[in-house]
Amino acid sequence: MLDQVVRFAPILGPLIAAAIAVLGWYMAHHFNTARDRINKRHDTITEYLLEAYRRLEMAANREDKTEEQAIAFESAIADIQLLGSSAQISRTVQYLKTHASDGGGTIDQVLCLLRNDLRKELGLSLIEEPPIVFRFVRELDSGDWQGNVVSRTKPVRSKKNSQC
């Protein structure tokens, strides 16, 4: 039997090396594919939540929302409930219940949570202060000397002093 092994020894070395190389290539491919899938998932979730934040912020603290803003707001809520963390979903549902029962509510806590989670994902520092929503306020009853509407700007914060 030893004679048979010795006879195939020149062939066994390259065969074993080839098998190890093929196995190594397969494992590397498998791990790279898994890593790419995880990275793509992370990027997609971050992108959707960033867009949800922008849509919520765009519609937040506006007295008269356009139909487009209302639809964007609803879409952002749906994205958070689909792709958000459990804390984000819980805070969003809490806001929705308050909004439905009280006829209104502030979205600031959801914005704070989204902002801090997105900043964490992007490797940025956390911010303790709640976001300040900037809005142009049009005062229709005042105007310049020619009767043109004057637009004033002011930061708008929710009626409650909320913290992140």
Characteristic terms for this protein:
164 residues; mainly alpha; two-stranded antiparallel ribbon; 4 helices; 12% strand; rod-shaped
Structure description:
There is one protein chain. By secondary structure, this protein is mainly α. The chain has one domain (2-129). It contains four helices and two strands; from the N terminus they run H-H-H-H-E-E. Helix 1 packs antiparallel against helix 2 (67-83) and helix 2 packs across helix 3 (86-102). The mean pLDDT is 84.
Give a quick summary of the entry:
The chain has 164 residues and is mainly alpha-helical. Helix content is 65%, strand content 12%. Strand 1 and strand 2 form a beta hairpin.
What's the layout of helices and strands?
Elements: H1 2-59, H2 67-83, H3 86-102, H4 108-121, E1 133-143, E2 149-156
Antiparallel strand pairs: 1-2
Helix pairs in contact: 1-2, 1-4, 2-3, 3-4
Number of beta-strand segments: 2
| Widest beta sheet: strand line-up | 1-2
pLDDT < 50 runs, ≥5 residues: none
| Number of separate domains | 1
Helix content: 55-70%
Quick check: average pLDDT? 84
Structural class by SSE content: mainly alpha
Count of runs of 4 or more consecutive helical residues? 4
- Secondary-structure element order, N to C: HHHHEE
Distance between the termini: 76 Å
Rg, nearest Å:
29 Å
- Beta percentage is 5-15%
* Main beta-sheet strand count, sense and barrel state: 2 strands, antiparallel
Shape: rod-shaped
